[in-house]
Amino acid sequence: MLSTAVLTAALAAAPAYAAVAQSPTQQSSTYTGKSNSTLPKSPVVAGKSFDRFISIVLENTDYATSPSSPVFQNLSSQGVLMNGYYGVTHPSEPNYLAMATGSFFGMHGDAFYAFPQNVSTVADLLEAKNISWALGVSQENMPYDGFTGFNYTEKNYISGTGNYTYYVRKHNPTILADSVAGNPERALRHRNFNDFAADIQADALPQWMFITPNLVNDGHDTTIDFQSQWLEYFLYPLLADERFNNNRTLILLTYDENETYEENNQVYTIALGKGIPKELVGTTDNTYYTHYSSLSTVEANWGLGSLGRGDTNKTLANVYSWVANATGYQNNGLTNSSSNLPLTNLTGIFPGFANDEMWTPILAPNMSAIGAGGGPVFAGNGTNMQLTSWDQPINWTARGEPNPAHTDPGFDYSSGSLVIKPSASSSSSAAGPSATGSVGQGGNSQGGNQNGNAQGSNVQAKSGAVSVVVPFAGALAAVAGVVALL
Ligand SMILES: *[C@@H]1O[C@H](CO)[C@@H](O)[C@H](O)[C@H]1NC(C)=O
Ligand SMILES: *[C@@H]1O[C@H](CO)[C@@H](O)[C@H](O)[C@H]1NC(C)=O
Ligand SMILES: *[C@@H]1O[C@H](CO)[C@@H](O)[C@H](O)[C@H]1NC(C)=O
Ligand SMILES: *[C@@H]1O[C@H](CO)[C@@H](O)[C@H](O)[C@H]1NC(C)=O
Ligand SMILES: *[C@@H]1O[C@H](CO)[C@@H](O)[C@H](O)[C@H]1NC(C)=O
Ligand SMILES: *[C@@H]1O[C@H](CO)[C@@H](O)[C@H](O)[C@H]1NC(C)=O
Ligand SMILES: *[C@@H]1O[C@H](CO)[C@@H](O)[C@H](O)[C@H]1NC(C)=O
Ligand SMILES: *[C@@H]1O[C@H](CO)[C@@H](O)[C@H](O)[C@H]1NC(C)=O
Ligand SMILES: *[C@@H]1O[C@H](CO)[C@@H](O)[C@H](O)[C@H]1NC(C)=O
Ligand SMILES: *[C@@H]1O[C@H](CO)[C@@H](O)[C@H](O)[C@H]1NC(C)=O
Ligand SMILES: *[C@@H]1O[C@H](CO)[C@@H](O)[C@H](O)[C@H]1NC(C)=O
Ligand SMILES: *[C@@H]1O[C@H](CO)[C@@H](O)[C@H](O)[C@H]1NC(C)=O
Q1: Predicted TM-score (pTM) of this structure
Q2: Which residue intervals are annotated with compositional bias (Low complexity) in the record (predicted)?
Q3: How far is the CA of 123 from the centre of ligand 5 (A)?
Q4: What is the mean pLDDT of the chain?
Q5: Among 122-126, 135-139, 230-234, 266-270, the least confident range
Q6: Rounded-to-integer distance, Cα 445 and Cα 451, Å
Q7: Ligand 5 atom with least separation from CA of 163
Q8: Residue ranges per structural domain of the chain
Q9: Which numbered atom of ligand 12 lies nearest the CA of 182?
Q10: Starting at the edge strand that comes first in sequence, how are the strands of the sheet with 80-82 ordered?
Q11: Residue 376 contacts residue 368 (beta carbons within 8 Å)
């Protein structure tokens, strides 16, 4: 959507696709930051259908355009074309967020957002099952591991002159959550493509990965041809590389959102990988899926807990059909031709923490939800279980005050370890929070002078963090315990 014009000149003078490296398994000087080390190799935790799940998310291409590309034709012949896959809202950032947290919290823009410690993510679910070191988030042009900035600009490797913004935070879903970004162990698992090259050379790729190509390779600033040529460069060789794609690998190639807001939000999606049952290769699956299905499918596969949000919504979170079969999960029967599909092209009308004009605090997840994996609902550290609804949303625009969701908590890993920078906004209490999260005790601080209070109190709480993992049987007892702590 933006800076297409900026790139047009460069594209005219350059080949449609300028390879960033010899191959995706080699480090490249066109990226800032050589890899310092590889991820530790961890024992493989077997899933019921697959042992590795890799999401690759592309941008801004019409659903109708992708099939005209020989590369997409080639890829769909090697996998399953998922013809009923939908984004959950508009624009980009809320769709990415949804894939990591099971909600977009009312978000309706692409601004800087940060979500408090009590927002749980897929990382909580994976780590609880010792799918250790599984949060391998590979962001093509991140300057260093754990980068939390809004974007990153470096030398334009296509035109060779000037600079270009290749990396954007809004396409990096897990870094948006403070429970990840404020936890060095987790934050440093956001690595760039030089790290990816080092990890694959060491045969140490994790079991769950989220791959975000840069703004030219994902098609955001370019064309379907450019995107296709990047896929030829990046994905073709990796599909043939056992260290990436073996007979237990499932790869999701999808788009964040449909370009035309006036239509429902169908996104062109292919499931790839040698872990797909052979008889399904080259077929089309019409089952209704949304971005929440990428969570529910992973939950079903490894028998994980859930986030108690969109990932447990029976309408929106069908499990990929063959994984549903392998795990005994019952999908809802909706297909792309059902007449009653929910409209997921709506934006700006949902109250929530990330809605500037209809703000609510983060509400507790649905603790009694039963997700596709059957495990417990994970509430983030410091969740106020009683805060399940909010009657009077706040209009920050009308108040002339910023939504606290835009407050930068200031997590900085440029030195290789966590330093809390004085926040660009309200908080002056930047000194020494515990690195691994703190309890948001200011849960009810929204009554009066709201600006930044939620974040400020978060930073001040140094101790008392509590892990709120609630098995179904013990739900009430655990809730009581948490409430007592708050
Ligand atoms: C958007 O999705 C609709 C289906 O809901 C599809 O017919 C249309 O081609 C898509 N439009 C674009 C621009 O991708
Ligand atoms: C897809 O591309 C790969 C790599 O170039 C090639 O080996 C394969 O034959 C192609 N498959 C189809 C169906 O075009
Ligand atoms: C490697 O470590 C150095 C020093 O801490 C840092 O400057 C560099 O950005 C790191 N590289 C990556 C890819 O993180
Ligand atoms: C990058 O961030 C700067 C500073 O916040 C902003 O002015 C610029 O518009 C951003 N560019 C992109 C492409 O996001
Ligand atoms: C290009 O970016 C580098 C840092 O990545 C910066 O040092 C330099 O000043 C920038 N040049 C221009 C012309 O903006
Ligand atoms: C998958 O690959 C492993 C290791 O190469 C092999 O032992 C196993 O038999 C293969 N399974 C199938 C179903 O092909
Ligand atoms: C969403 O899509 C539906 C069905 O295509 C359409 O009728 C509606 O106008 C769209 N809504 C918006 C807000 O564009
Ligand atoms: C599940 O999603 C549907 C479609 O968006 C929505 O109507 C319904 O209220 C959601 N259910 C729950 C329990 O949130
Ligand atoms: C799932 O199982 C049903 C019933 O056995 C079968 O009809 C269907 O083809 C299977 N679907 C997939 C995708 O494996
Ligand atoms: C919020 O306030 C702004 C400025 O007063 C106004 O334009 C907007 O309509 C309000 N939004 C809502 C949802 O009330
Ligand atoms: C989550 O944490 C924020 C920040 O501390 C707080 O404002 C909010 O009330 C909390 N929500 C719940 C459900 O705990
Ligand atoms: C939650 O709190 C516990 C106990 O202090 C801590 O060990 C854990 O790292 C925290 N989790 C997160 C995601 O911050």
Answers
A1: 0.87
A2: 424-438
A3: 34
A4: 84
A5: 135-139
A6: 10
A7: 1
A8: 42-485
A9: 14
A10: 190-191, 135-139, 208-212, 52-58, 249-255, 270-272, 80-82, 284-285
A11: no
For strands 85-86 and 289-290, give the pairing.
Answer: parallel
Cβ of residue 50 lying under 6 Å from some atom of ligand 3:
no
User: Is 168 close to ligand 4, i.e. is its CB under 6 Å away?
Assistant: yes
Instruction: Give the pairing type, strands 377-379 and 468-470.
Output: antiparallel
144 alpha carbon, closest ligand: 3
pLDDT in tens, 11-48: 443 446 777 778 999 999 999 989 989 988 889 999 99
Residue 248 pLDDT > 60, yes or no? yes
CA of 111 to the centre of ligand 11 (A): 21
Cβ neighbours, 10 Å, residue 11: 20
Angle of CA points 131, 186, 21, to nearest 5°: 90
Quick one: pLDDT band at residue 423, thresholds 50, 70, 90?
low
- 78 CB within 6 A, ligand 5: no
Catalytic-labelled residue, pool 199, 221, 311, 356? 221
- Name the CATH code of domain 42-485 (choices 3.40.720, 2.30.29, 3.40.50, 2.30.30): 3.40.720
| Residue of 373, 384, 397, 351 whose CA lies nearest to 481 | 384
Q: Please indicate whether residue 157, judged by its CB atom, sits closer than 6 Å to ligand 9.
A: no
- Is 221 a known active-site residue? yes
Burial 277-311 (b: 16+ CB within 10 A, else e): eeeeeeeebebbbbbbbbbbbbbbbbebbbbbbbb
Nearest ligand 8 atom, CA 314: 1
Percent of the chain topping pLDDT 90? 73
> Which pLDDT does position 270 carry in this prediction?
97
Q: Which two tokens stand for residue 297?
A: 């499918």
pLDDT of residue 66: 79
What is the tens place of the pLDDT at every residue in 297-337?
Answer: 999 999 999 999 999 999 999 999 999 999 999 999 999 99
